[in-house]
Automatic annotation (TrEMBL):
InterPro entries: Fungal_SecMetab_SDRs, NAD(P)-bd_dom_sf, SDR_fam. GO terms for biological process: secondary metabolic process. PANTHER family: CHAIN DEHYDROGENASE, PUTATIVE (AFU_ORTHOLOGUE AFUA_5G01530)-RELATED (PTHR43544:SF32), SHORT-CHAIN DEHYDROGENASE/REDUCTASE (PTHR43544). This is 3-oxoacyl-[acyl-carrier-protein] reductase FabG. It comes from Penicillium subrubescens.
């Protein structure tokens, strides 16, 4: 297993995280760590994946990005078992469906910004043990200030204010991390998966499919595999999506 690339994905039991795990583990030479807040859901995802034609290997890790103790334990476990992380994919996120006001803001920023930053910072020392490390923050075009201020862009429409704010903050975090890590051989990316089937918006079918408008997360997962396999190294340090790059 030590010869396999070690890929850690937060929020890996559903949506983009699960699709990415499935896409990567179907390739040989990868060990995918399914990092999930709910260990039972993580194990269910692992069993489901192992029932398919996987060529890599899998493990499950309890990790709640909003819990510092959980983060610390997860780092220690990965350090003991693998000694490094080759690719860290920060995917856990929320739109905090069903909440409003201060509670909504606090939940969204706690997961999408504070959690993403703290868990990434905690795993950076293990990334630096890799000979070819990648750091991928799962963002959204809705967080692009450039697109939000462009009246001709479909991404400038009004809804999702709190979520947009959180992803704009995540993008700034990614920019700053790239400045710090690029000279240490870490290839840093912000990646927008687009509007895809996900429990990000809630558990109902209407929420998962965004009222039938959501695409297949496997398409985005294939683009993430391209990053992981080195096919988009020229875009390191940028805000990328399937077809190119977005303005910050």
């Amino acid at each position: 297993m030590s010869e396999s690339k070690v890929i850690l994905i937060t929020g890996a039991n559903s949506g983009v995280g699960y699709a990415t795990a499935e896409t990567i583990v179907c390739q040989p030479g990868y060990h995918v760590i399914l990092a999930c807040r709910d260990i039972e859901k993580g194990n269910q995802a692992r069993f489901k994946l192992e029932a398919t034609n996987i060529k890599g290997t899998l493990s499950v890790l309890q990790l709640d990005v909003e819990d510092d103790t959980s983060i610390s334990k997860a780092v220690n476990l990965v350090s003991e078992q693998f000694g490094r992380v080759d690719v860290f994919i920060s995917n856990a996120g929320t739109t905090s469906p069903g909440s409003t006001g201060r509670e909504r803001l606090q939940k969204i920023f706690s997961t999408n910004v504070f959690g993403a930053m703290l868990v990434t910072e905690a795993f950076i020392p293990l990334l630096l043990q890799s000979s070819r490390p990648y750091l991928i923050q799962i963002s959204s075009a809705l967080g692009s200030v450039g697109l939000a201020t462009d009246p001709s862009s479909e991404h400038s429409l009004p809804p999702w204010d709190e979520y947009r704010m959180s992803k704009a903050a995540l993008n700034m975090m990614t920019i700053q991390m790239n400045k710090r890590l690029k000279d240490k051989n870490v290839r840093v990316f912000a990646f927008c998966p687009g509007l895809v089937r996900s429990k990000l918006r809630g558990d109902s079918e209407a929420a998962v499919t965004a009222q039938g408008n959501a695409g297949d997360p496997m398409d985005s997962a294939k683009a993430i595999l391209e990053i992981v396999s080195g096919q988009r190294d020229e875009d390191a340090g940028k805000f990328v999506w399937i077809e190119g790059c977005y303005p910050w």
